């Protein structure tokens, strides 16, 4: 892992240490509810964290897609502008 | 103009974030992170991604989202539900990226890609990594960890060629933003469903 090529645009970037990667991975680990909720004491491998992260992002994307479809259908049914104003008012309260 | 200044500032901060020589380098990364927190003070909490968890941020997003979605409904009303859903999704992503205020790479990527789509109007390309057809030829030969990092880079918009620490940084913010997006859209959908049912129309709730 320490032989990772960093394809960044900034010149003169030195190698990224394993400690740094482990630290970042553990930070990411805390965000994923899958990993956070179960077996939080055991050390999860970086590979597993990355895999769960990808799955989690894909799930979130899918949720957003589903919600978008739902919202577009709901908006088609509510036609009046007064509804929208009422919604915004109730949201901002 | 103002946006340019913001971008260069965050870019230079990324530069110093990445430099590591020894333990001293690691410490400077920490101090840069602290500096960045001081600059982004105000509503941001101690934890990174905390700005996406504040109630205020979600309400602002919800209000802007409603605006954008009603515009979608009014402008071109495509008959197919799929296109409408896609338009809503794009509007939601756009508003989300705008809420990021251009501080993160993924938000800038979303904002610039939308402009490109409108100008060119070629095949419908989603910003996220749905281009599964573009799989590299070697899939099992590289170590699985590297492969997963590549997949992650494809999932977060605009982060394909990012270095590992920056990619994780972007992914962290992106995940928090997506969670807020889901929360806001869910609340909005429930609100609309409730309003639709209780309004004077005789339409049944569409849930």
UniProtKB/TrEMBL annotation, chain A:
Ranges of residues in domain BHLH: 5-60
Pfam families hit by this protein: bHLH_ILI (PF23174)
Keyword Transcription regulation: yes
InterPro entries: bHLH_dom, HLH_DNA-bd_sf, PRE
Keywords for this protein: Growth regulation, Nucleus, Transcription, Transcription regulation
Localization: Nucleus
Domain of life, source organism: Eukaryota
UniProt protein name: BHLH domain-containing protein
The organism of origin for this protein: Vitis vinifera
Automatic annotation (TrEMBL), chain B:
Keywords: Nucleus, Transcription, Transcription regulation
Cross-referenced CDD domains: bHLH_AtIBH1_like
InterPro entries the UniProt entry points to: bHLH_AtIBH1-like, HLH_DNA-bd_sf, IBH1-like, IBH1_N
Location of the region described as Disordered in the Swiss-Prot/TrEMBL record: 22-51
Principal place of residence: nucleus
Domain IBH1-like N-terminal as annotated: residue spans: 56-112
Compartment(s) where it occurs, according to its Swiss-Prot or TrEMBL record: Nucleus
Entry keyword annotation includes Nucleus: yes
Calcium listed as a keyword: no
PANTHER family xrefs: TRANSCRIPTION FACTOR BHLH149-LIKE, TRANSCRIPTION FACTOR IBH1-LIKE 1
Protein name per the record: IBH1-like N-terminal domain-containing protein
């Amino acid at each position: 892992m320490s032989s990772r090529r960093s394809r960044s645009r900034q010149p003169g970037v030195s190698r990224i240490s394993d400690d740094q990667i482990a630290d970042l991975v553990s930070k990411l680990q805390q965000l994923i509810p899958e990993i956070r909720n179960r077996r939080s004491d055991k050390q999860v491998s970086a590979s597993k964290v990355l895999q769960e992260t990808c799955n989690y992002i894909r799930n979130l994307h899918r949720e957003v897609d589903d919600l978008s479809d739902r919202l577009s259908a709901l908006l088609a049914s509510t036609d009046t502008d007064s509804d929208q104003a009422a919604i915004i008012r109730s949201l901002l309260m | 103009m103002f946006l340019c200044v913001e971008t260069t500032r965050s870019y230079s901060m990324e530069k110093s974030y990445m430099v590591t020589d020894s333990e001293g380098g690691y410490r400077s990364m920490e101090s840069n992170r602290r500096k960045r927190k001081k600059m982004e003070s105000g509503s941001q909490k101690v934890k990174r991604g905390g700005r996406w968890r504040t109630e205020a941020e979600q309400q602002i997003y919800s209000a802007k989202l409603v605006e954008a979605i009603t515009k979608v409904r009014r402008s071109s009303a495509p008959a197919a539900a799929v296109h409408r859903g896609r338009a809503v999704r794009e509007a939601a992503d756009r508003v989300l990226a705008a809420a990021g205020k251009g501080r993160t790479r993924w938000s800038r990527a979303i904002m610039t890609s939308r402009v490109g789509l409108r100008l060119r109007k070629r095949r419908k390309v989603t910003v996220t990594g749905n281009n599964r057809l573009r799989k590299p030829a070697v899939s099992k030969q590289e170590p699985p960890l590297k492969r997963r990092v590549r997949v992650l880079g494809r999932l977060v918009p605009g982060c394909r060629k990012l270095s590992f620490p920056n990619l994780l940084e972007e992914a962290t913010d992106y995940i928090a933003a997506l969670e807020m997006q889901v929360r806001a859209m869910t609340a909005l959908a429930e609100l609309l469903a409730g309003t639709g049912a209780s309004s004077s129309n005789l339409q049944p709730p569409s849930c």
